[in-house]
Amino acid sequence: MIPASVAAQLREYRKHHYSGHVLALVDGLQYQQHTGQQLTPEDDVVVSLFAGTKDIALAHAGPWLVDPKSARGRVADLGELEQARPGVIWLITSHSLARQAERLRPHLNTRLSTGRSALLRFWDPRVLHALDAVCKDKRGRELFRSAYEWQYLNEGQRFTINDHATD
After folding, report:
1. Per-residue DSSP letters for 20-81?
2. 64 three-class SS
3. Which residues contact 70 (CB under 8 A, 6 or more apart)?
4. Is 88 helix (H, G, I), strand (E, B) or coil?
5. What's the CA gap between 156 and 129, in Å, rounded?
6. 111-151, pLDDT tens digit by residue?
7. What's the distance, CA 17 to chain centroid?
8. Which residue in 7, 30, 97, 99 is a FRET match for 48, CA 20 to 30 A apart?
């Protein structure tokens, strides 16, 4: 189930844009711990952001993009998961599931000041909340512009990130 605030924002988005829908960015480990099942890829329904990357072995625990409208009955209630664990971020976008995954993949890793690469866990609402607070320059906001709007719960409170990206 999509939270009411996300559905309301989607209706508002559709007033100004030709099309749009909600996708869920899901933490695979939180999903597995909550349901006892792993997410599995399914065309136009569920895709791993690690698909096609060197981190594919971590796919079960990593970020998944889910189309909740297409996933009915094949994926546990993501609204329930969101309430129970820090494992769901709602994205409003005009992009297809596959295209949105492509837009998010470049942000999976970040370059540290030491020159080393590190996994950037932006699919965890706690991390996303901290990123939103510290990323202030244009380059730092690139992740947030990959979708029109991001909604998530942090410590029981709903937050929205909207950098008014050009979809």
Report:
1. -EEEEEEEHHHHHHHHSS----BTTTEEETTTTSTTGGGTTTSEEEE-TTT-TTTS--HHHH
2. strand
3. 44, 45, 97
4. strand
5. 12
6. 888 889 888 999 999 999 999 999 888 788 999 999 999 99
7. 21
8. 7
- Do 128 and 143 meet the contact criterion of CB atoms below 8 Å apart? no
Q: Which two tokens stand for residue 141?
A: 């906001």
Say how far residue 61 (Cα) sits from the centre of its chain: 14
Distance CA 144, CA 73 (A): 30
User: What's the gap between Cα 162 and its chain centre?
Assistant: 13
pLDDT in tens, 11-47: 666 656 667 889 999 999 999 999 999 999 999 999 9
Q: Answer whether 0.85 is exceeded by the pTM.
A: yes
* Residues 27/87, Cβ–Cβ less than 8 Å: yes
Residues in the chain: 167
Closest by alpha carbon to 63, among 106, 122, 110, 111?
122
- Run of H or E including 93: strand 88-93
What is the edge-to-edge ordering of all strands in the sheet holding 157-161? 46-48, 63-66, 21-27, 88-93, 149-154, 157-161
